[in-house]
Amino acid sequence: MENLQKTTKIEDHHERVVLVGLNSGRLKAHENADEWSMGELAALTETAGGEPIAQVLQYKDAPDPRTFIGTGKVQEVKELIENEKAEMVIFDNDLSPSQMRVLTDEFGVQVLDRSGLILDIFAKRAKTKEGRLQVELAQYQYLMPRLTGMWTHLVRQTASGGKSPIGTRGPGETQLETDRRHIRRKIDKLREDLEEVRRVRGTQRQQRAKNEIPVVAIVGYTNAGKSTLLNSLTGADIPANNRLFDTLDTTSRLLSVSDMLDVVISDTVGFIRKLPHQLVDAFKATLEELEYADLLLHVIDVSNPMWREQADVVDKLIVELGAETIPYIRVYNKSDLVSAEDRPHGEGTVAISAKTGAGIQEMLDLIERTLDKGSHRVTLHLPYDKGGILDMLYREAKVLEVKYEETTVVDVICTTKTLNQVYPYVYPPMEEEKEEWER
Known about the structure:
alpha/beta
């Protein structure tokens, strides 16, 4: 198992890659390749350390059961591989294990599909124990149906130069020699470990609920600027680079939205079109945080020409994760790069620039209004024999200051529920709100 996350740096050798996609009326809309998804595939390839040297987008009535793209296109790609000295072919669509074996034999180089590429990037980027567990589980689930015939082309790819090509990071040669029963045991063990992660997270959530601290989760398409926003808000030193899937591990920080409101704010893994289903399942330990959030900040890169399509991908995945009933704010990031008339407006939306700080205060104000649970800032005068009340306030409210005078003077921010328990000790006494007819 220790071999799973070892990766070989390939910065000194960028593998030359031909990108291939199929658009067919027989495929579902989200399964098809198009110019946008092929461009995204090129960016993913570069993120993984490859060099896209050519693209082939095939339009065909129905996928070929054996070669997926048909005999004619296979020959065209073979000529590209030879002429361009390509070392790998990556498909924008998902391939069946048998199609991948046939195409590998036809092309004479390694063949990878989009899911395999994304898994490879995740294997390279995951840093924490939790992130590595999640990637490991997803890799094994992806690997299981592809074990037959996979060993031979991996040997061919690694035997000569000792490099680790794209798509082979993670499960190493020794794992690929093991049988399916051994792989299943590893999958079961990884699931147990992730259940333990969920148990720990559940305990943390209970503690947050006990302290009545709202949870805000930042979600959005990969590279939308989520990490930059969290850094801007909290000073968290999270790497924020212009590349896909730069953040894989959830980062949580305490954020003071205002004098009346503290929240726990969490950055989550970026969503992407055609996210491998293995990752949706494996990353439940991270993404299940969304189900327990009090508010979602959907960060959208409004400077991207495809921002509407990207936002739609995120919205659909939120539904798939069971978080569609949670209140959310649409945060249109990078608004400094578009004209004022191109910035979306409306209720529950705000335009910001996480990089320059523009619009951040408006966003915080909107968060406070959305999460307002009737907080009150009051001063309490507690008799010295009421020390138990102070202990309760530390647990259930936000204690700002304590002074010991003739009584214990406590400045505190609390909810209406807590205020009702300490109402007799409020000074000066609060006036009760009167109905309109009583005034």
